[in-house]
Amino acid sequence: MKFGIICAMPEEIKELTAVLEQPQVKQLGGKKYFEGKINAQDVVLVESGIGKVEAGITTEHLIVEFKADVIINSGSAGGIGSGLHVGDVVVSSATAYHDVDATAFDYQYGQLPGQPAQFLASTKWADAIVKAGETTGLNIFKGLIVTGDQFVASEQAIKQILTHFPNALSSEMEGAAVGQVANDHKVPYVVVRAMSDTGDGEAGVSFDEFIIEAGKRSAQMLIALLNSSVK
């Protein structure tokens, strides 16, 4: 079993590279892929960069070049669901694009032509992450994560997203792209996000203050998974 783990930013990946054993580095498409072991589990880590295109490219590389059996996208996100606070963790049940509109051609809002409206995450791995994460003491939620090339920093932007996705818990900039590529290859995937902000008018300030802590918390979830006996 090989885990391919994608983080968008250095603050999000450094907690994982710090515990990676026997690391070997391969450069591909301008990205560094760190292949090694965490608790005897085979892992490939990559800092994708921000946005859907970067996330899609690195997912493709992890599946095709590194033969990853499961893809996990880890990092920070904005909480847009009711009851979420900075530091809480959301594990995806599914992901969707909040910035895609092909409704003129009778597709659902957020649905790309030729693609499903939402990309279902692996129930097996989402449940395993939630169970393993219970050992961390973090507040964990499971639900829909929405993705767009937009930092959601206002209540107006949140309301617009929730108009189309009333059950969405968090918004970020990579997850659905990971889900789309994984779905194309029929490889299971999950997105794990710790809340760095709640998308209000102070989101930019909150993000800067809590991004490091959010990265630590999402990494804690994955380390807990890799330390468990799940296979």
TrEMBL record:
Domain of life: Bacteria
EC class: hydrolase
Keyword set, alphabetical order: Amino-acid biosynthesis, Hydrolase, Methionine biosynthesis
Molecular function GO labels: adenosylhomocysteine nucleosidase activity; methylthioadenosine nucleosidase activity
Any one cellular-component term (Gene Ontology): cytosol
Pathway assignment: Amino-acid biosynthesis; L-methionine biosynthesis via salvage pathway; S-methyl-5-thio-alpha-D-ribose 1-phosphate from S-methyl-5'-thioadenosine (hydrolase route): step 1/2
UniProt xrefs under SUPFAM superfamilies: Purine and uridine phosphorylases (SSF53167)
Pfam family name, one: PNP_UDP_1
Domain Nucleoside phosphorylase intervals: 2-226
E.C. number: 3.2.2.9
Catalysis performed (reactions): 5'-deoxyadenosine + H2O = 5-deoxy-D-ribose + adenine
One example of a Gene Ontology biological process annotation: nucleoside catabolic process
Entry-linked InterPro entries: MTA_SAH_Nsdase, Nucleoside_phosphorylase_d, Nucleoside_phosphorylase_sf
UniProt name for this protein: adenosylhomocysteine nucleosidase
Lineage of origin: Bacteria, Bacillati, Bacillota, Bacilli, Lactobacillales
